[in-house]
Amino acid sequence: MRFIILSLKRNILPFTFVVIAIFLVIFSRSNLTAATNGLTLWATCVVPSLFPFFVITNLLSRTKVVDFVGKLLDKCMRPIFNVPGIGGFAFVMGLISGYPVGAKIVSDFRENGSITKDEGERMLAFTNNSGPLFIISSVGISLFGDTKTGLLLLSTHILSCITVGIILGKFSKKSDEEYRRNMHTHTKNGNNLNSSKTVTFKNLGEVLGSSINNSISTILMIGGFVVIFSVIISILNQTHALDIFAKFLNPFLSTIGFDLEFAKPLLSGIIELTNGVKQVAGVSIKAISQNVVLCAFLLGFGGFSVLLQVFSIVAKTDLSMKKYFIGKFMQGIIAAIYTFLALKLIPFLNLDIVETSNLSTSNISSFLSMNNPIYSFFYDFGIFVIFVILIFVTFNLFNRLYNSHKV
């Protein structure tokens, strides 16, 4: 029996690749369309939004900005997340630019010895996130047709990644400080692991060229993942395997009171984020809050496509993916819970379709939200301010709780 298990484990990947190769030939027409769509998505969306951030973060890592940010945020990041101040740079850049910029920065930090192994693994989990451009524009406005839904998803996304960072920080290893002191001593003695050149006017062209080459390599890798997973989802659809696997989600969806039509879109999102969020948002039911909650989960989790992208980025380091997977799954669950509570506790956020006999009230509401741009601007701006205040209050509350417990 043990021999059979070992044999299956040893041959499962070759067998899987052979099956995929066969289906590539059988469903060549649909696979060609899927690959074309994936390539178009990469060229029109991924490259314009991520490539500039890859270049600028690479350039910033060659300056003293990261060290300055590290010293500035050390008193904040260390008590809350139990990571050095430079973790704030990875956190902010990861939120601004989206997947997988945060993982790229953390990987670079680990390579040059700026962080410990445990810190790097925990930072991967809460600094690698969906960007505001994707959440507000692509999901909120394009898919749900509503700005406040995008702001809600962004706010719960940020709160959930902060929560995950705090939770993982409480279970971190205590030996990191001793390791850091030893590493700092080696750095002073001239054994710094960072072999990158500091950018100056003299070597600006060389450093810029190197940054662009590194960014091109990363962006091409991401494009390969987008195309491959688009084809894989197409194969799963053609073979109806996605429908079969989706049935296993039906009992779970029934238990939490969600419509069973979400099973297949949710499974697609677990495999690949962009296509899954689009399918989940496109399910037509009156309880729109269900669409929003499930999108919050997918945005937090990221999907296996993003997970493999991160795995390929950190492969050259000694960072393990275990904490990343656990952290992102936790973030998806927590983001869904935060979104559900916000929709239930803040009535004006809920977009569920309800029966109403008050036609005049409906017309007034429609006039205020659709036909008056001044009211719409202040309405959206007010929601944004409220969410920023909530994030700030929550952040400070965790900091005070930690300090009081420390004393």
Question: What is the H-and-E element order?
Answer: HHHHHHHHHHHHHHHHHHH
Low-confidence stretches: 185-195, 354-372
Q: What is the molecular shape?
A: globular
Strand content: under 5%
Average per-residue pLDDT, rounded, comes to 78
Number of strands: 0
Terminal CA distance reads 56 Å
Structural classification: mainly alpha
Instruction: Give the helix tally.
Output: 19
Number of individual domains: 2
> What level of helicity do the residues show?
over 70%
Structure description:
The chain has 19 helices and no strands. It has 407 residues and is mostly helical. The protein has two domains: 28-169 and 223-353, no CATH class; 365-407.
Q: How are the elements arranged and paired?
A:
Blueprint: H1 2-26, H2 28-60, H3 65-81, H4 86-97, H5 101-111, H6 117-127, H7 132-143, H8 147-170, H9 176-188, H10 204-238, H11 241-246, H12 250-255, H13 263-271, H14 273-281, H15 288-301, H16 303-314, H17 322-345, H18 359-371, H19 373-406
Brief write-up:
The protein has helices at residues 2-26, 28-60, 65-81, 86-97, 101-111, 117-127, 132-143, 147-170, 176-188, 204-238, 241-246, 250-255, 263-271, 273-281, 288-301, 303-314, 322-345, 359-371, 373-406. The protein has 407 residues and is mainly α.
Descriptive keywords:
mainly alpha, 19 helices, globular, 2 domains, about 80% helix
